[in-house]
Amino acid sequence: MLVFAKENKLKFICTNIPRRYASIVNSKGFEGLDNLSDQAKKYITPLPVKYDAELDCYKQMLKMGQMRHIDKDYDILNLPKAQAIKDATMAYFILKHYLKGKLFLHYNGSYHSDNFEGIVWYIKQKKDLNILTITSVEQENTEVLNKIFLNKADYILCIPEDMTKTY
What we know:
Blueprint: H1 2-7, H2 19-28, H3 38-41, H4 56-68, H5 78-97, H6 119-126, E1 134-139, E2 155-160
Parallel strand pairs: 1-2
Helix pairs in contact: 2-5, 4-5, 5-6
């Protein structure tokens, strides 16, 4: 994508938070970011971060984390906060570089925008933009979309469960 943008003289904006800063939130909560230098803070959304623990994406992440983590010293409540700082930072940089009347195409993992939450929720807190989302789902029969996937995104790519994976 970077090569395509360069060859076609298109703007290419990296919106993600550096992984080390999301890791700080995962271990210390949002408060851990307060100790970052002013230079480091240029790579993240302005603090403090608005956070809604009741968003389904963060509640689901908490459930998944509770099934996986057994370390008593680990604060599981920070796991969805680490996801939220990623979402908030991507939304911040999208809005910072968005130009009215221009298309802004953003690539992200589906968890960051499924069900119009994550990045979409953060953008909508600041600006009412026309946002379209795309996601992919896997199911055995690709002829009819399973009802559990309805309204997950504006466009849903239905992929066979047995399709070869490259990750």
